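From the methods appendix. Each design record in this collection lists the tokenized structure first, followed by the designed amino acid sequence. Records were kept in a plain field format so they could be parsed without special tools. The example shown here is representative of the layout used throughout.

RECORD:
FOLD TOKENS (149 positions):
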């Protein structure tokens, strides 16, 4: 019985003193600095389309959110197409994809930055063995970030 009383008193005393130490620490909460690491994303499209889907807009919004608190040095958007269709049409489609992704990214509130738009068309969509590369209906996005000074 005496042991239980001593443990209870020790526990109560310990909690009382730790609470005092905690109150003073609340005023000194330090937040971690923003990590300004480059962000990459892939935005996928429906066949023969350059319209950014709702899923694509969500991915771009997340990329823009990750850039908050950082300086956006450059944004690179590479539009791609698969091997279906004429090469010239696929090049134009990949250009439209790059442009629509950059417009959608700007609409998310991404800070002003230099945008490099590139289009590969169907270039690279067929391997040396003659197989077609899957998932080429996309735009690859890289947001280069650095810390604010």
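DESIGN:
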């Amino acid at each position: 019985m005496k042991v239980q009383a001593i443990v209870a008193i020790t526990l109560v005393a310990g909690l009382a003193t730790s609470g005092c130490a905690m109150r003073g620490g609340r005023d000194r909460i330090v937040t971690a600095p923003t990590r300004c690491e480059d962000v990459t994303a892939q935005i996928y499209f429906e066949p023969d389309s350059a319209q950014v889907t709702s899923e694509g807009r969500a991915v771009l919004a997340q990329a823009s959110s990750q850039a908050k608190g950082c300086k956006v040095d450059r944004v690179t958007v590479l539009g791609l197409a698969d091997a279906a269709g004429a090469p010239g049409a696929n090049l134009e489609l990949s250009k439209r994809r790059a442009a629509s992704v950059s417009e959608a990214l700007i609409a998310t509130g991404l800070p002003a930055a230099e945008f490099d738009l590139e289009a590969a068309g169907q270039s690279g969509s067929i391997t040396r063995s003659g197989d077609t590369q899957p998932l080429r209906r996309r735009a690859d996005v890289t947001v280069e970030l650095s810390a604010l000074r």
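APPENDIX NOTE: The beta strands are 39-44, 70-80, 114-121, 138-147.
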